[in-house]
Amino acid sequence: MPTSHRTPAAVCRFMTERICCMVMRINIDCNGCYRKVRRALLDMKELETHLIEKKQCRVSVCGRFVPRDVAIKIRKKTNRRVEILEIQEFSINDEQTHEEKPLMITSNTWNLETKPILKPV
């Protein structure tokens, strides 16, 4: 009989094989809310990078994690509503992802790319 849920071993394998980037909407009204969200993100060891856009009320995170679990943890730690806007998953074994297409998440104010851009001085 097949089961529809993942076993702990399958979840661990999923986390080590995939890199996820997730964009969330979190209402950040004041500096206190900003500090709450920032502290919650810094305490999560599975996150490699994060970006908080205070004016747009958006938070972007990248790392090896299960997106739903991260959103739930942020909700519990900050007591703020968390809305997942976009999730992108990348396989480590997939060479095409790293060579041909850099990750571009665009908004009005920033770009997040996997490859650094060097500008001459």
Automatic annotation (TrEMBL):
User: What start and end residues bound the annotated signal peptide?
Assistant: none
For this UniProt entry, the molecular function terms from Gene Ontology, in alphabetical order, are: metal ion binding
At the top level, the lineage of the source is Eukaryota
| Residue intervals passing through the bilayer | none
Q: Which SUPFAM superfamilies match?
A: HMA, heavy metal-associated domain
Please give the name of this protein.
Answer: Heavy metal-associated isoprenylated plant protein 25 isoform X1
Q: Which organism is it from?
A: Gossypium hirsutum
**Coding gene?**
LOC107890815
